[in-house]
Amino acid sequence: MKYLIVSDIHGCLPALEKVLQFYQNNHFDMLVILGDILNYGPRNGLPEGLNPKGIAERLNGMAAETVAIRGNCDSEVDQMLLDFPILSDYTLIADNGKRLFLTHGHVYNEEKRPQNGYDVFFYGHTHLWKLEKTENGIICNTGSVTFPKGGNPPTFAGYENGKITLYHLNGEILKEMQIE
Predict the structure, then answer these.
(1) Domain residues for 117?
(2) What pLDDT is attached to residue 180?
(3) Strands 66-68 and 30-33: what pairing?
(4) Which residues contact 146 (CB under 8 A, 6 or more apart)?
């Protein structure tokens, strides 16, 4: 399977539309959202194109091919607008013998990683992209498509056949890594 993994949309419909256009143009099979989908969050400013209802409508049309994780800005009210579950703190996907641990980052993160075994630890939350190998597997922070921090560009990730690719929102490849 080919996965597009995105985090921290924060209600910005124009950013989501760019991600979904990339998803369709590059023939991904599944959309994985690592939380903070509809709500912009009280510590952030208002994003350009804030449209939580529009995001819900757009994503509900893709419910059968979407897996989502709860972010710190997601709530039961958000779940009421969406046709796919979003309230899990993590999920584990097994793909061709590789284990992908998926979380937002506010419960499980680099300092508090689960011990159940995985090949790649995917998270968001910090809005700072990262892709690096560690002695406990690969860590990938997908960054944020709406509110990147630390001078970083807006980013998301892809995963296929053991290869993780980090993308700029414009589609440019920023970094790639293969699971060994």
Answers:
(1) 2-178
(2) 84
(3) parallel
(4) 8, 9, 10, 11, 12, 15, 40, 47, 154
Angle at the Cα of 90 (from 84 to 93), degrees rounded to 5?
Answer: 80
Residue 122 has pLDDT above 90, yes or no: yes
Entry pTM: 0.96
Task: Judge whether 72 and 89 are in contact, CB under 8 Å.
Answer: no
**Cα–Cα distance for residue pair 159/10, rounded to 1 Å:** 22
- Tally of domains within the chain: 1
For CA atoms 117, 119, 124, 125, the dihedral sign is positive
CATH of residue 60's domain is 3.60.21.10
In the beta sheet, which residues pair with residue 175? 166
